[in-house]
Amino acid sequence: MPFTGQAEAIIDAKQRLAIPAKFRSRWNPETDGTTWYCVPWPQPQDAVLRLYTEHQYESIPLAQGVTSSLTPNQNLADLQTRIYGYSEQLDVDANNRIRLSAWHLELVGMPKEVMVIGAGDRLEIRSRELWMRDRQQHFNELRRLVDQQASTTNTA
Predict the structure, then answer these.
(1) Quick check: is 1 in a domain?
(2) Sign of torsion, CA 130 81 12 33?
(3) Does some domain include residue 134?
(4) What pLDDT, on the 0 to 100 scale, is given for residue 129?
(5) I need a surface site. Which of 35, 98, 133, 143 has the fewest CB within 10 A?
(6) Which residues of 18-28 are buried (b: 16+ CB within 10 A; e: fewer)?
(7) How far is CA 150 from CA 41, 120, 155, in A?
(8) Which DSSP category does 92 fall into?
């Protein structure tokens, strides 16, 4: 169930975001879970809020090959604290809206007018203004990113 495409949206005065219909149709609460997880993520140009379905968030291992431990190494402990400490579980209301955390919105400087972007296993919420401004540049970088990922995969 990859999320694809993009849609314009508004974060209302109560910090609610309606999940756009094109993405809701890909989300099945019975198999994907009834809630979403929001993870703020720093980016070089603009920060982003990443939305994962309940099932997807809970099934992604934080560190490949690492099992739970009462004594994780310090780097793993710090990573776990940051990822889980910054993540928030969001309920969906009867109108298919989630209420974003005010501190998440402030942390990343998210405006009211946003783009919700399908990113495969997740949705990303980004500033509409910045996304539209840089859309051509993002497209032009696509080949480089694919090539870079291919070379990383081939050397691993």
Answers:
(1) no
(2) positive
(3) no
(4) 94
(5) 143
(6) bbbeebeebbe
(7) 24, 17, 9
(8) B
Number of domains in the chain: 1
Q: How far is CA 78 from CA 8, 38, 75, 108, in A?
A: 35, 19, 5, 20
Averaged pLDDT of the chain: 89
Integer CA distances (angstroms), 111 to 15, 40, 134, in order:
10, 14, 16
Q: What pTM, to 2 d.p., does this model score? A: 0.85
What torsion do the CA atoms of 62, 65, 71, 75 make, to the nearest 10 degrees?
-60
Mean pLDDT over 2-29 rounds to: 95
Tokens, residue 120:
């495969």
Residues 44-60: tens digit of each pLDDT:
777 899 999 999 998 88
d(CA 93, CA 111): 22
CATH code, 24: 3.40.1550.20
Contact 39, 91 (CB under 8 A): no
Distance of CA 117 to the CA centre of its chain: 9
**136: three-class secondary structure by DSSP:** helix
List residues bridging with 3 in a β-sheet: 120
